[in-house]
Design goal:
about 350 residues, six-stranded antiparallel β-sheet, 12 helices, Chemotaxis protein chec, about 25% strand, Surface presentation of antigens (SPOA), four-stranded antiparallel β-sheet
């Protein structure tokens, strides 16, 4: 091999490619064109896919795998949705106090965007997953009640004493009584959720079914984005978490309303400015032309025109005259004379006749 220290950059690269082509172990016959293609070794494949050199796959999470398995969901912020859930928290505090006859405090922990599949895999079990349907939007949402809140609600509704933690018996399925009591609470929350959306867009959230296996609560594709709302419900020394998961596809019918910064925003429409603009347009000066006749001539004839040339119009004194504003035909009338000046009497409104009815 030649000494690469005295070669230019192009020659050095050519020499390296020639050396690679000579290595029989790193090439394979190309069945399509008869050439050769370099085969990547395992370390190069791992580096491209984002795995660490030790093969654990827990490196810096770069490369193709970071793009494929990315759980980060960046979606536009919906300001009005935050106001809706603030209203829900206030309404739930009152309704759950009436429902449990106990001192209930509801707090909003977090509003975030997640992928549906990632959230479904992260639900801590055991839990109850309530599927509900937004009737007017014709789509579904998910409400998850964790184990702590289930036992707390059952304990409160069945007369458990205050100051004692709810008894938990893990590893067994929920009984019919527990499911019915939690379902009653879900109906209360869905009623409040409907009332919270009412000022924005009337919608009815209807309870559909109650599941304990996340596989049976699939309401969207795993890659679909969704809004996740985490609520904390405290009943003195008892309580738990309740989470609402609403896919963005469900919120699509009211997306424009949820983008508002405040209730009643008109996205740039200003009635005062519209009135002012309409008033000024009515006093705007426009140019109006009376067209006696039109004809089409070759460019050669036009170029032959000079001072004194005559143009013969194919019109008579009784022929209709068009009044135009720019390129728009506005009126049609007859030409005459009034007070020593040429005038046009309007006989037909051409503009309003062309408007769609």
């Amino acid at each position: 091999m030649a000494n690469t220290g005295d070669l230019s950059e192009e020659e050095r690269l050519a020499a390296e490619w020639a050396a690679l082509a000579e290595e029989g172990t790193d090439e394979v016959e190309d069945v399509t064109g008869g050439g050769s293609t370099r085969v990547l070794n395992q370390d190069e494949i791992d580096s491209l896919l984002g795995f660490d050199q030790e093969g654990g796959g827990d490196g810096d999470n770069s490369g193709i795998m970071a793009l494929v398995n990315s759980a980060l969901v960046n979606y536009e912020r919906l300001p009005m949705l935050e106001i809706v859930f603030d209203r829900l928290v206030r309404m739930m505090s009152t309704s759950l106090r009436n429902f449990t006859s106990d001192n209930v405090e509801v707090s909003l922990d977090q509003i975030s965007s997640v992928r549906f599949g990632d959230y479904l895999n992260s639900i801590p079990l055991p839990a109850m997953l309530s599927v509900f349907k937004a009737e007017e939007w014709d789509n579904y949402g998910l409400m998850v009640v964790d184990s702590a809140l289930i036992y707390s609600i059952v304990d409160v509704l069945l007369g458990g004493r205050r100051g004692t933690a709810a008894m938990r018996i893990e590893g067994r399925p929920y009984t019919t009584i527990e499911r019915n009591l939690v379902e009653r609470m879900v109906h209360v929350v869905l009623s409040d959720l409907s009332a919270a959306f009412d000022p924005l867009s009337p919608v009815t959230f209807r309870f559909d079914r109650l599941e304990t296996n996340p596989r049976f609560a699939t309401i969207a594709r795993p890659a679909n984005a969704a809004v996740l709302v985490k609520l904390r419900i405290d009943m003195e020394d008892r309580g738990g978490r309740l989470e609402l998961m609403i896919p963005y596809a469900t919120l699509e019918p009211v997306r424009e309303l949820l983008l508002q910064m405040f209730m009643g925003e008109k996205f740039g429409r200003d009635s005062i400015w519209e009135t002012h603009l309409a008033t000024e347009l009515l006093v705007t000066d426009v140019d109006m032309r009376a067209v006696l006749d039109e004809m089409t001539l070759p460019l050669y004839d036009v170029l032959q025109w000079k001072v004194g040339s005559r143009i013969i119009l194919n019109t008579t004194a009784d022929a209709p005259i068009e009044l135009r504003c720019g390129d728009v035909s506005m009126f049609e009338g007859k030409m005459g004379r009034k007070g020593g000046q040429i005038a046009v009497r309007i006989d037909k409104d051409l503009y309003r006749q062309d408007l769609p009815r």
